[in-house]
Amino acid sequence: MADDKQILLDRVKREIIDKNICPDLAAQGNINAEIVFIGEAPGKNEDEQGLPFVGAAGKFLNEMLAQAGMQRSDVYITNIVKYRPPNNRDPEPDEKKAFWPYLLKQLQIIKPKVVITLGRHSMEYFLPGMRISAIHGQPKRIAFGKEKLVIIPLFHPAAALYNGSLRQTLIDDFMNVPTIIEKIKTEK
Question: Helices H, strands E: what count in the chain?
Fold first, then answer.
C-alpha cells in the first residue's frame, strides 16, 4: 500500500517536472500521514535545499511539532506553489491556480485526516472568502470529492517570527491539533 502511494506521488512529481511547472516538487514526509501541512511557497533556504520549511520558519515548525508530541517524519509537508516567487513575493493567483490540480492529486493519494494550512494563501483555496484572523485554529469540514476533509487554518510560522504577538496564538492553535485529530478518529 505504501509502495503504491509512493509510486502515485512520484507520478505527480514527474508530471509537474515534465510539464515544466517547476524544476522540483518540494514535499517531504510520511506518505501515510494523518496530517498534511500546506505552506505557501518555498523561501530562499527551501529553494536552495529543495525541501519545504527548512529555514527559520521551519525551525519554528519543528519546535511546535515537538511540543505537540510529533516529528516531521509523522506528517507530510508541502507548499501550494512549488517554486520560489521572485524576490520572495507572495504567490500570485495564477501561480497558485497552476499548482492547485497537483496539490489536489497529492491529497487524494495521501488521504490525510487533517489538512493544516499555514498562512492565508493556502487557506483561501480550501476556505474561500474566509479571513485567517477570524478562523485560525478552528477545524472546518469541507467536501473533498466524495470524501469530507478537515481543514485547520493556522497562521504561517514566518508571520509569527515577524509578529511576536502571533507567536503564542500559533503555538496555542498548534497544541490543539492532536485533540482535534483524536475527536475526528472517534467520530468515524
Answer: 9, 6
**Vertex 52: Cα angle to 172 and 122 (nearest 5):** 60
* Angle, CA of 90, 96 and 100, to the nearest 5°: 150
Stated pTM of the model: 0.85
The structural domains of the chain, with segments of one domain joined by +, span 2-187
Architecture of domain 2-187: 3-Layer(aba) Sandwich (3.40)
Which pLDDT value is given to residue 13?
Answer: 76
Grid coordinates representing 74? Answer: 509523522
Average pLDDT over residues 89-93: 87
How open is the CA angle 183-106-4, to the nearest 5 degrees? 95
Contact between 153 and 136 (Cβ < 8 Å): yes
CA dist 155 to 15, 24, 77, 129, Å? 30, 25, 15, 16
Nearest to 103 by CA among 2, 51, 26, 5: 26
